[in-house]
């Protein structure tokens, strides 16, 4: 009888130990935030871009490249649905609505209009949105404050342009400037914000401002024609509408020897004279790191939005020579990149 009781106790102890080990193993996986289903999961990401031009394409490429470095390989553990609204606000909304209907795991939005459309479409859902290439995230209604987590489904990288530095750069090239022209789309909140900052700054320096607003890229050439004989230089912010018609703008201004300064570096590669601009490729990579954090378990609303971390002073030497514009030695000495 004693032997039977002893054997039963041994069996009970062994079974208890096995159950304890099994429970400990499961608990370890939970603590790491990993479960069996996650190892085979394929994430579906909607990528929405407002218009096709080199600066924004760099944003997208930086994003895709960094996602690989974060361990997300397309076709293996992640799938991208990449859409471009071709400058059409209604199409941007349609794209965002479709992503929500498709129940994507997250939306990566490039530019202010695409980000606003994604924010509106995902309202009331738990689909996270990561934005980039947004100059004024607060003014455009995406977030409440630059330095605080939103508590919503939205976070991202805001890239307030260094407008004052851009205006000072124009002043270095043209010390006796009196008239500065602006071309932008008043329907783009980021452009309005940057133009207002630029106006306030240059008017404090005694410069006169001549503004022309366009509603579509088809109006850019006419806008350039209207400014060419009236201003000493033209500045275009990171405006999706205007930059998508940059070649037409450049042709009109170069014919009249009017220098063009822009808010983005890729436009300098294409023929503008110079800028202090955001590094768009790095901006995309920065946004990818934020999205990776979300896919790994963090909530978008708990991630504090980040300011773009890298800017570049770029000069196009050929563009300046073509309009007989001298490049100050002080600018050459500081330049991060010179386009020959």
Q: How would you describe this structure to a colleague?
A:
This protein is of the alpha/beta class and 340 residues long. The protein has 2 domains: 150 residues, Response regulator (Rossmann fold); 143 residues, Response regulator (Rossmann fold), CATH 3.40.50.2300. It has 14 helices and 13 strands. The strands form 3 sheets. Strands 2-1-3-4-5-11 form a 6-stranded parallel beta sheet, with helices on both faces. A 4-stranded parallel beta sheet has the order 7-6-8-9, sandwiched between helices. It has a 3-stranded mixed beta sheet with strand order 10-12-13. Helix 7 links the parallel strand 6 and strand 7. The N terminus is likely disordered.
Give a concise summary.
46% of the residues lie in helices and 19% in strands.
Q: What is the CATH architecture assignment of the largest domain?
A: 3-Layer(aba) Sandwich
Radius of gyration: 26 Å
Strand-pairing-aware structural class: alpha/beta
What count of domains describes the coordinates? 2
Cα(first) to Cα(last) distance is 98 Å
SSE pattern:
HHEHEHEHEEHEHEHEHHEHEHEEHHE
Question: Percent helix among the residues?
Answer: 40-55%
Instruction: Give unreliable regions as ranges.
Output: 1-37
CATH homology-level superfamily of the largest domain = Response regulator
Measured by DSSP, the beta-strand proportion falls in 15-25%
Number of strands: 13
Q: How would you sum up the major sheet?
A: 6 strands, parallel
Number of helices: 14
């Amino acid at each position: 009888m004693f032997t039977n009781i002893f054997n039963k106790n041994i069996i009970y102890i062994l079974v208890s130990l096995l159950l304890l080990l099994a429970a400990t193993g499961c608990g370890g996986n939970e603590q790491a935030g990993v479960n069996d289903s996650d190892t085979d999961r394929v994430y579906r990401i909607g990528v929405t871009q407002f218009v096709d031009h080199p600066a924004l394409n760099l944003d997208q490429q930086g994003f895709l490249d960094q996602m690989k470095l974060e361990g997300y390989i397309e076709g293996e553990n992640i799938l991208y649905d990449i859409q471009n609204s071709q400058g059409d606000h209604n199409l941007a909304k349609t794209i965002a609505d479709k992503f929500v209907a498709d129940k994507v795991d997250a939306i990566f939005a490039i530019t202010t209009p695409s980000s606003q459309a994604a924010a509106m479409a995902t309202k009331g859902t738990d689909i996270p949105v990561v934005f980039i290439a947004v100059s004024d995230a607060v003014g455009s209604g995406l977030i409440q404050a630059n330095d605080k987590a939103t508590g919503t489904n939205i976070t991202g990288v805001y890239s307030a342009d260094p407008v004052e530095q851009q205006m000072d750069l124009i002043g270095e090239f043209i010390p006796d400037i009196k008239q500065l022209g602006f071309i932008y789309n008043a329907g783009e909140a980021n452009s309005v914000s940057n133009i207002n900052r630029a106006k306030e700054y240059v008017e404090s320096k005694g410069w006169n401002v001549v503004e022309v607003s366009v509603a579509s890229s088809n109006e850019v050439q006419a806008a350039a024609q209207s400014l060419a004989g009236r201003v000493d230089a033209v500045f275009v912010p990171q405006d999706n509408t205007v930059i998508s018609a940059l070649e037409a703008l450049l042709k009109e201004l170069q014919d009249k020897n009017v220098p063009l300064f822009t808010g983005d570096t890729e436009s300098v590669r294409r023929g503008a004279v110079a800028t202090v601009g955001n590094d768009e490729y790095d901006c995309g990579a920065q946004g990818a790191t934020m999205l990776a954090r979300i896919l790994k378990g963090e909530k978008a609303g708990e991630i504090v939005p980040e300011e773009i971390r890298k800017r570049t002073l770029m000069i196009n030497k050929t563009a300046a020579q073509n309009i007989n514009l001298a490049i100050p030695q002080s600018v050459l000495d500081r330049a991060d990149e010179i386009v020959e």
